[in-house]
Amino acid sequence: MKNTKPSSLVSLEKQLADFLGVKYTVLTGSGRSALAIALRSLEIGNGNVIIPDLTCAIVPQTIISAGLKPVLVDVNKDLSLDLESVENRLDPATRAIVVNHLYGCPADDMRRILSIARQKGLFVIEDAVQSFGATLNNRYVGTFGDIGVLGFAKCFFNLLRGGAIITNDAALASNARRSQAQILRRANPLELRFRYFRRAAPNFIKRLYSILHGETTSPEPPPDGLYRRWEVTYPYQCQHLTSFEASSILQTLPALGRLKAGRVALAEEILKIVQARPDIGLELLLPHRPDFTYTRIPVIIRHSTLDKWVSYFRRRGIVIDMYYFPLSDNLLLREHSLLSGDYPVSHALARSLLPLPVSAEMVRVLKSLNVTRDIP
Questions:
Q1: Strand pairing partners for 100?
Q2: Are 151 and 33 in contact (CB under 8 A)?
């Protein structure tokens, strides 16, 4: 297949592969489109894909759109997959396991996951969209499984979009390029944008009102805990990265070590405040590790409610995002997913997990925080 990509994109794919220590890289318009193309490249047809119950709803939506069925399993207290639940849900229809490395703080036992997958003949897909540059045992996350997906928007790059597929399998890389080319040929950018704005418009006024009045824009589940939400995202799958975006990533890559060290140092300052001030009612979810990239710092709230914490930080000019409700409680997803009993850890974390942004402003706000006064 003739390569029609601009030279800057071809150069970026090669340099990313060299940087991460993999053989093949395929650039995409977003992390979501990377996952969609990765699923197609596996050529697994119909079947089930195991995913954690506590992750972004875009993951199961993409799986459903690929004609597959998500199987929701509980997580451990460190956000890793509960491997006992995984093994209990394996059946002849299972085709793959998706490992989500959330918040730049990967905690999954990749060696055991790979062992389970190899014994059962399953693919392992690593979703490292939030964890570019994070490592496990001196190896970048996303490089352990059969195929990995990356994102550039939430990491060290000053971009609003962009993603990549990485693999060491020549056949999977070739399938990914072919699938991407097919999507780009079929895509009608104007039609996709029209469909996106038509779906997003009903929530626009409500969200704008909430932002202007300092209210949280997150959905609040009804009293029974169930909710209905379908993520509406921009149709980046119809686009390549531009040469400008590729050049920006190319210029950032050599400085990634320095940028990571700077973020880790700032994260350590926030971690020390949380540990030194038990009066603020926050507890670290994970012990500090220098190989984390800390897209967010996950902490557990021991005072008040998650919504009040989010509202407090919003009043102080800090937006709290990337916190999730259990997928098993989403009525729209339950219609297309397989459940596996109860999800006690997932539900407990959804009520108490607060992902703190890493910034100098967060340091200042935490130092001056008076819980009794600020978060009743």
A1: 127
A2: no
Identify the CATH assignment for 202-234+256-374 out of 3.40.50.300, 3.90.1150.10, 3.90.1170.20, 3.40.190.10.
3.90.1150.10
Could you read off the pLDDT of 204-238 as tens digits, one per residue?
566 566 556 555 444 444 444 555 555 544 444 55
pTM exceeds 0.85, yes or no: yes
Q: Which two tokens stand for residue 182?
A: 């097919």
Specify the CATH number of the domain 7-189: 3.40.640.10
Domain residue spans of the chain? 7-189, 202-234+256-374
CA distance 76 to 221: 23
Kindly state the DSSP code that residue 261 receives in the 8-state scheme: H
Q: Comparing C-alpha atoms, which of 338, 314, 320 is closest to residue 328?
A: 338
Distance CA 200, CA 192 (A): 12
CA dihedral over 167, 62, 39, 55, signed as positive or negative: positive
Each residue's pLDDT tens digit, 162-200: 899 999 999 999 999 998 888 776 655 555 555 555 555
Calculate the CA 281 to chain-centre distance: 26
Which pLDDT band holds residue 45 (cuts at 50, 70, 90)? confident
Q: What is the dihedral of CA 331, 334, 340, 341, to 10 degrees?
A: 30
Closest-CA residue to 97 (of 59, 65, 50)? 50
